What we know:
By secondary structure, this protein is of the alpha+beta class. It has helices spanning 132-135, 210-227, 240-247, 251-263; strands at residues 7-15, 19-23, 29-33, 46-53, 59-62, 73-81, 85-89, 96-99, 112-120, 125-129, 148-156, 160-165, 169-174, 187-195, 201-204, 231-232, 267-270, 273-276. It starts with 6 loop residues before the first strand and ends with a strand.
Amino acid sequence: MIEIGEYNTLTILRRTSAGLYLGDDEGEDVLLPNKYIPENYEINDEIEVFIYLDNSERKIATTLTPKILMQRFALLKVVAISEYGAFMDWGLEKNLLVPFREQGQKMEEGHSYIVYLDFDEQTDRLFASNKIEKLLDNETLYVEEGEEVDIMFYRETEIGYSVIINHWHKGLVYKNELFKDVNIGDEQTAYIKLIREENKLDISLQPIGYENFNAVNTQKLYDDLKSNEGFIPLTDKSAPDDIYERFGISKKAFKKAVGDLYKQRKIVIEEKGIKLV
């Protein structure tokens, strides 16, 4: 079955005046319009395309790159407001609708919001939802403590930032463990720090445990030294902001990494900086 809202690898079946018809192993086919046809192709070649719905709600293929996939979250910009809801730019010709009933907050043209791509089986239409909380589920967890995960920042709270984990769960990054500026919609790799009561998830932006955490920062410091003629003008007396600006880590983490390299006799600590042996 050709999947809507996803990339599909299909076989080129035939050429028509409208474009190429592509098919899957189950006998279903879909049109790739002329404007998306690659310069070089052969009948029976395989091609990867994204499938969405045209203005008549029929499956259509494109080689354009969408900004969101089915049952995934992404930060998209509102390009128009209509009587039906907000239309968002998702990288394709036909804009993506967020119906008023799916808006967790009143959307405004020109502003960006995190949305979730879904399919309405009653109307056979793609739509997006901004009601993030109802789309996240921690009842059954598919992550473990210490596991590396993908996160997206979606809301600031008094104590930290709520994040979307693997497009499925929700968690929290505490402000006192943030050593960089973040924005709503930012995505990055993180780690499950702690699973608390009621399956609440605490998230760390650094690998869990001293050994893993320090190893990453130590290598980062060592690589920076090698790339800068064996010297960096920072020491354990440097301002935390200067350390973070260069390495993206706290002063405490920097001092641990320096200590590790010093114990390995790879550096000498001078008054104005650190130097490779």
